[in-house]
Amino acid sequence: MTHPLPIRRVHHIEMIAGNARLTAFFCRRALGMDLVAYRGPETGHPGAVSYYLVKEDLRLVVTSPLTHEDPRVFFLALHGDSIKDIAFEVEDLDGVSEVLEQRGATFVMKPRGVSDRYGTVRMASIKAFGDTAHTFVARGGYGGPFLPGFEPRHRPGYDSGLTGLDHFTINVEARALDRWVEFYSNILGFHPVEAWAGKEVQTDRTALHSQIVTSPDRRIRISINEPAAAVRRSQVQEFLDYHLMAGIQHLALATKDAVKTVTAMKENGLEFLPAPEGYYDQVADRIQACHLDREQLERLGILIDHDGKGCLLQAWTRPVTDRPTLFLEVIERRGAETFGGKSFRALFEAIENEQARRGNL
Ligand code: FE2
After folding, report:
1. Could you tell me the distance, in angstroms and rounded to a whole number, from the CA of residue 141 to the centre of ligand 1?
2. What are the backbone angles phi and psi of residue 8, rounded to the nearest 5°?
3. Average pLDDT over residues 16-37
4. How far apart are the CA of 323 and the centre of ligand 1, in A?
5. Right CATH number for 9-155 from 3.10.620.30, 3.10.180.10, 3.30.420.40, 3.50.50.60?
6. Ligand 1 centre and the CA of 335: distance in Å?
């Protein structure tokens, strides 16, 4: 078995957006994240702007290129607003880079130090699925608000109770699932979750294959989907048609109170997928076992699962980008450790209804 890399945590997620200022406002106003730091022309970086937003253990940076010479302009043209990087924090950047090199990772940025008046951070990036990268960050004793070049800029969000990142989900091309499971196993030393090996999720209309990989401590969880043949176009294929290559389909945002968070986000203007017809009749026993209020769940579109260890509450937004690519999940774990396997089919039926509204089913 491949020895796991000593990854401490997800350091941050970077999204490339056509208008970072508006996306940062959306993250504050709709998601309840606080703006903490900024980098741009005013801080000595004329080519791009970046807004760094935080809510407890959830850290997101939104970047827009400002000139046509910036290669991220092509990223935007190909994919629309999309996530470009899931960055991991490590202690020994050079040691980790050496292991990555030995394991055959492709570097898009070789290890280097980046400095400003707060100190030096060492970073390296490797190519991941599609146009996405994994950056490794060693902060050492760096004292700045985020990364070098960023200056503090405090604007509070409209709190919705988010506490961190539970998992993220990648859509990859047909027949590419095994290759990406191998990438996370062989390069990062993550473990495939046995119970999900090659899991096929099928409704009457569409199908996909799915696999979950986690870091050995299970704190970093990645779900990977590929489209499978079926009567209609899979949601994964719809994503690929608009995103043009593999990419992040959704971020699952953790909360300790899904009812409170979804209520706040809806009040803040986010749209959530309604559950399919008849769903709450089918899960009446789960609602009872988890001591939940059916009317409340139904009003908010929260799906409910139970895995023997505890309950899982999940709700999914409509796409938050113009293209039907990126969406968000709100997830509350009450002891449950799985990924809502029983809710999958209901979720996919709900997404199919949305695909049909777009004329893409
Ligand atoms: Fe998810």
Report:
1. 34
2. -80, -45
3. 98
4. 19
5. 3.10.180.10
6. 17
